[in-house]
Amino acid sequence: MASLGRLYSMFDDVVLPEDIPYAQMSDWEQKFLYLVARHHVNGTGALVELGSGGGGSTYAIAKGLRENPAFDEKKGRLHAYDFFRVGKGTFATQRFFKAGKAPEGGNSFREDFEAALAPFMGFVEVHAGDIWNTSDPQDKSPIEFLHIDIAKTARVFRCVAERFLPRLEPGAVVLHQDFASPRLPWLHHSTGALLPYIEIAGAPIRSTLVFEVVRPIPAELLERIAKDEYTVDERLALISAVQDEVDLDHTGRVPFKQVLELAKAYVCHYEGDHRRAWRIAEPLLKDPYLSETRADHFAQLRRALGEDAAPAPAPSRVRRLLRRVTGR
Ligand SMILES: C[S@@+](CC[C@H](N)C(=O)[O-])C[C@H]1O[C@@H](n2cnc3c(N)ncnc32)[C@H](O)[C@@H]1O
């Protein structure tokens, strides 16, 4: 089994087909998924992808598994979880349809996903729908490969933390997509809490942080993560601990220390402490990467601060009249 660190020297060996399905991630990340599936997986546990979308990431994993001599297609399964449909609150894009948009009156891209993954459907198992409904709370079977590209809300992250993280044992590998998104700080502080039990593979690959579990993770810690039983200060300290472990991503594009600093601002923002959020965010305006790629984040944080400071709207005439009558 290749150590995860060794996979970084193998990018040039990977050739993915030109017509691989559209993916909401970089080629680098697709290639790393392939490399982990090809060289790291050894068939000892479940293989799980949370947030398969149109199959661009699933395809890379499935191709790696097919070329991995340790993977037995007759027995092994790659579990693919997704809504497999577009619509409000799904975080799925119309680009997951083969045609690039949903057909008249249709919202499911499951058929397109299965057609794109046809060469591998013998070992890909689709779990279509809200992950809270499609995952089994009783399933405690060990997971050896976990790609997380679904935790776009705290509600969904809770499901991941409750039902999937407890199934990780030493040797398991986790790939956290969207780790470069400051709006998802639960990815960052939960990783901080796991640090004593994991080894980060190396520099993040664009937006993906990869780690291996190296020690059993205590059940109480996992419960604390799932219930998010941390104060704001504790969450900020956990993110700082991750900042100590990461810097520029492997391709030299994403400055993770700064990205995670902005994630701290979002911890405060979600708690309604907009002043503290802005105090953290404002100095980051000077960072060229963040000011170029996250202008909308700064605008959101500044707007929230402005809304806090704005005077309460003047009472309407009707309300003034009511007040006079009721005395309230
Ligand atoms: C960023 S996309 C995944 C992209 C995909 N991995 C790729 O490489 O193109 C996130 C996916 O998470 C799915 N998703 C978000 N919340 C979900 C939930 N509660 N249950 C099931 N799927 C969910 C969306 O349908 C969406 O396809």
Automatic annotation (TrEMBL):
Name of the protein in its database record: Methyltransferase domain-containing protein
A biological process term (GO) from this entry: methylation
Lineage per the UniProt record: Bacteria, Bacillati, Actinomycetota, Actinomycetes, Kitasatosporales
Entry keyword annotation includes Manganese: no
GO molecular function: methyltransferase activity
InterPro entries in UniProt: SAM-dependent_MTases_sf (IPR029063)
Pfam families to which the protein is assigned, alphabetical: Methyltransf_24
Keyword list, A-Z: Methyltransferase, Transferase
Organism of derivation: Actinacidiphila glaucinigra
